[in-house]
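FAQ
Q: What does a multi-component entry look like?
A: The components come first, one per line:
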Amino acid sequence: MKINKNGFTLIEVLIATLILAVAIISVNAAFKQFSVYKQKMNKYKNIYTTTLSIKDMIENKELKDNIQDTGIMNGLNFSYKVKLVSKNRNRSLEEGEGNTGAFEIYLYKINLTVENKEYTFFKTQYRKIIPSEGNLIQ
Amino acid sequence: MKNKGFTLIELLVSIAIFAALISVVAYSFRFTLNIAKYVNYQYAQDLQTISKLRDSLDSIFYYIAQNDRAVEVEDKFFIFFYGDRKEFKYITAEPVMYKNGTLVLGKIYKKQKSLVLEEYPVYDKNIDYKIPKFKDIEPKKTVLFQNVSNVKIEYFQGNKELSKIKEKIPTLIKITVIQNKTKKELNFRIKSDFKQKEKYSEELFEGI
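Then the predicted structure of the entire assembly, as tokens:
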């Protein structure tokens, strides 16, 4: 067998390099896009689960009008503000004795901000008022 | 100038190399186009499990179990819920793995390096529905978190924190996991306000 010892011409080397470069660039681009997308989805997943966790934590608290707080959960900054929307009182009446107590229902609006994104939700809260002796609840 | 052309071997090798390169490029291109599908599928499954768990815990059932020593003891009935720092057991009407509406016994605990959820149907022939206990039946299992090195579970009844809870339903369950050296916190609220309302109303109108 005859072996060509002249080596490759410049054109041959350039074409081979070009083909290899196209292959490397396309594989690299796909990998880069994959990792960027994965990071984005990780962030989205964290925001989704954390926001619901913060919501549950706030809902578990005894809320009052005009309270606000800030904090960090799972690496995300959050703040919230509570506003009383409406309240109603059901009185318990006994004949000849007047009120024996009241049952109050509060509706709160909560504005929650997680990583500069705003969310709004509502919570109803109940409270029982028992009058001290001799005092009637109006 | 050499005018001999290529040998058959040279031609075959170059075609093989070219074909391999084209395949790699074509696969990468296709992968790039479908990247959202591949990644979304994995995350959608993870998020679906967590969302289902959230609904499941929110639907924790006020299951009144019956004590097996009912004649001897005063407290004949009790609410089925047990929890400590490492695990908790509950009964829910909205399971993660079973069909919606099936009453199941759920158990969340750390097994090896994962936080797992096990579910047993309450009305299974191997379980006494009056006193639900884990017997020798194969539960349905799902992994909630992988690569977990530590788990801490806390319970709240309003603002009151409890390290252990027995036969009472908490209003909030806080699960803290150390996953891949990162601390993750998840809160699950059990809405029991309607019970509170009911209790208050009953007390209030008792005298009328």
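Q: Is there any commentary attached?
A: Sometimes. For this entry: The beta strands of chain A are 68-73, 76-94, 98-114, 117-129.
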